Amino acid sequence: MDKDQIQRFLSAEHFAVAGASADRSKYGNQVLRALANHGKQVVGLHPVVTEIDGIAVYRSLADTPHPIESLSIVTPPSVTDKIVAQAIELGVRSIWMQPGAESAAAIQAAQEHGIDVIAGGPCILVALRIPV
Prior knowledge:
By secondary structure, this protein is α/β, with parallel strands linked by helices. The chain contains five helices and seven strands; from the N terminus they run H-E-H-E-E-E-E-H-E-H-E-H.
């Protein structure tokens, strides 16, 4: 785990969590709430849900009201590939792929487009010890 990468990820003004979930037992919910509880301006990404615990949720990165700088991904790898393609198009600067969400193709594509990628390491909840 690279502390500089984590610092760059956390220095963003606007965050999104792909794979946000209304189920509090799911990591997509816990990561979303942890970032919000840590004072971050965060939105969720989900194809159907529009709000989770008072946090706005959008269908895609393109639908968010502000450009997203840091993106946490908590989705199956096949979905991760699609989200990373959107992130590349929209200029996301930093991506944290949570364990289980990693895709070698998505990591390579993001890095080839200059996106800082955190993958193959601990979940943001573990790395930062953020209470949820």
